[in-house]
Inverse folding.
């Protein structure tokens, strides 16, 4: 970069004052400052875009690695499942003598899963609502003004 110290800036300023003149110097300085600001913002935007694209590439590489690992795990699970399924089907068909010699009858499979029809997402507190009401625990949030208005005595009730 260009090394601009205070002494060099002072020389540039005096030359600009002589060349441009004191009347137009503030307008030119304002224009130059605006252009420098725009240039800095442009450079910053370009740097941010480059860093985003680099991060995106890294994330895509990590995603590809993760997907390949997931496919490998899925493949191994399917292989194990097929192997165990073959062993079970062989045992059920009577190929294995240890199963057939036991003489035990096969039990029927357990009943299918039935959803309990509970509202899982409903928020439930640990303390029952009736107990909170009896103890005077606030159930709803009120602003300070609403609380004051609620507990302010009504006109005509105090005598």
């Amino acid at each position: 970069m260009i090394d601009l110290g205070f002494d060099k800036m002072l020389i540039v300023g005096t030359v600009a004052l002589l060349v441009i003149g004191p009347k137009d110097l503030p307008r030119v300085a304002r224009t130059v400052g605006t252009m420098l600001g725009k240039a800095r913002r442009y450079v910053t935007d370009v740097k941010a875009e480059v860093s985003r694209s680099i991060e995106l590439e890294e994330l895509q590489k990590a995603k590809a690695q993760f997907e390949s690992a997931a496919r490998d795990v899925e493949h191994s699970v399917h292989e194990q499942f097929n192997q165990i399924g073959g062993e079970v089907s062989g045992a059920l068909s009577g190929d294995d003598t240890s199963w057939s010699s036991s003489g035990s009858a096969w039990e029927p499979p357990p009943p299918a899963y039935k959803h309990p029809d509970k509202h899982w997402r409903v928020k439930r507190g640990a303390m029952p609502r009736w107990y909170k009401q009896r103890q005077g625990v606030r159930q709803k949030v009120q602003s300070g003004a609403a609380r004051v208005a609620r507990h302010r005595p009504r006109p005509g009730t105090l005598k």
